[in-house]
Write a structure and sequence with these properties.
This protein is an all-beta fold and 104 residues long. It has a single domain, classed as Archaeosine Trna-guanine Transglycosylase, Chain: A, domain 4. Helices cover 0% and strands 31% of the residues. The chain contains no helices and nine strands. The strands form three sheets. It has a four-stranded antiparallel sheet with strand order 1-2-5-8, with no helix packed on it. The chain has a three-stranded antiparallel sheet with strand order 6-7-9, with no helix packed on it. β6 and β7 form a beta hairpin. The termini are far apart.
Length: 104
């Protein structure tokens, strides 16, 4: 298997291997031709996604399209934005606590 559609509602699939432009993928009795190279772990559109429409992965909206995205196009930070608000941004702020020494 070189790609996976995780949930029935998804409008993107995930490449499980590097996929070359021109590769034909078949999902749900539909064939999509990749319009760009898609690196392993990255998403590509299974259907046309209109500007402003949600990108659906895991059956849930994970972001929205910044521009129209045609089926077969690489879906990543260059053409999508997260649905998280500025208040939901994650920051790594460790608060390490010293632990008492343990008896041997």
């Amino acid at each position: 298997m070189q790609y996976i559609k995780i949930h029935a509602l998804d409008n993107v699939a995930v490449a499980l291997a590097d996929l070359a432009e021109g590769t034909e993928v078949s999902v749900d009795n539909q064939t999509v031709t990749l319009r760009q190279d898609v690196a392993r772990g990255h998403k590509f559109a299974l259907t046309d996604i209109a500007k402003g429409a949600n990108v659906i992965k895991y059956g849930l909206p994970i972001g929205y399209a910044l521009a129209d995205i045609a089926a077969g196009v690489h879906v990543h930070a260059h053409n999508t934005r997260t649905n998280l608000s500025d208040l939901d941004q994650y920051r790594y702020q460790p608060d390490f606590q010293d632990l008492p020494a343990q008896a041997a």
